[in-house]
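Researcher: Structure for this, please.
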Amino acid sequence: MSDYTDASTGPYVIDAAPALEAVPTFDDAPGTHGELVQLDGDERDQLTELTRDLLAKIAA
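Model: Predicted structure, token format:
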């Protein structure tokens, strides 16, 4: 837990532990168990296109 002081509300405490426990990790994803996933040609092309689009939006 972290203690913070805010002039408008006074001291308050934030407990991030419940939120952090709810975040899935790669190892928690169904069917992955941490191993790499093999993509076929179409899936790889789609992922490449989505990645390029995302990077272009970030750069814009």
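Researcher: Any notable elements?
Model: The mean pLDDT is 68. Strands lie at 2-6, 10-14.
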